[in-house]
Amino acid sequence: MYRLVLATAGALAGATVAHAHHRRRRAERLAAATLETLLNAVDANDAVTGAHVRRVAAYSLIVACALGLDKHRQREIERVALFHDIGKLHAALFDIIHDASGLTKEERRAVATHPQRGAEVLEPLATFYPALAEGVLAHHERWDGSGYPRGLKGEAIPLTSRIVALADTFDAITAPRRYHRGENVAKALDVIRNGSGTQFDPVLADVFLRQSVVDEITEAMRHAHAKARRRPRPNRRRSAERGAPDVSFRWRDQIVRPRAEHP
């Protein structure tokens, strides 16, 4: 009888563990599907921002590979890059961000709320992606503490945010937008070089400026822009009417993949 009780208890415990594991896996799949839906929403709302976050993710992954970060950290950086501007989907910000004229002080203050808005959107997924909301919240912090929204300084800024800040700046300078044509790579590299130690982590800036890294980022940039020129750009209203485009986290197949190692 004693052995039977033990066997029964063991079977019940095993079934409970298996059931809990199954529930956890279902929740993880739902969280991943939620992220994919959010990425689709970025595209459907604004194809320009959708292309921007993919380029930023590609450049960030190249830097992460150059740093020798493991796959887990690379995935964290990738997610922060892909969702760093999701706070700009707020209806009150869309027209301001895409206004070709100069922004007023009030408008600049409104735009500066997008890290906080993005973090609030992503916070419910913190159980599965604990670094995501924090990384998005901090991507406009500066190494010298003069950034926003919290004025974090130095290594108090998450590594994910420090890497994405470099890639975001590079793309903001080089990418053609509605309101400017885009500068050349040399101009973007000068901005990063001059911002090392003030705007950017100086160690990460040095990695970004390595010739091997610059060559790979430039290749990825040219590939992405060439593909964008071949693809018709839908307007916002028609995209919404058709529904979200078929975009998945296999987005990396659309852009040159980062090499596994750098000299």
From TrEMBL:
GO terms for molecular function: hydrolase activity. Signal peptide: none annotated. Residues 27-223 form the HD-GYP domain. InterPro entries: HD/PDEase_dom, HD_domain, HD_GYP_dom. Keywords: Hydrolase. It comes from the Bacteria. Residues 223-237 have a biased composition (Basic residues). This is Metal-dependent phosphohydrolase HD region. SUPFAM superfamilies: HD-domain/PDEase-like (SSF109604). The lineage of its organism: Bacteria, Pseudomonadati, Gemmatimonadota, Gemmatimonadia, Gemmatimonadales. Residues 238-263 have a biased composition (Basic and acidic residues). Pfam families: HD_5 (PF13487). Residues 223-263 are annotated as: Disordered. It comes from Gemmatirosa kalamazoonensis. Residues 49-173 form the HD domain.
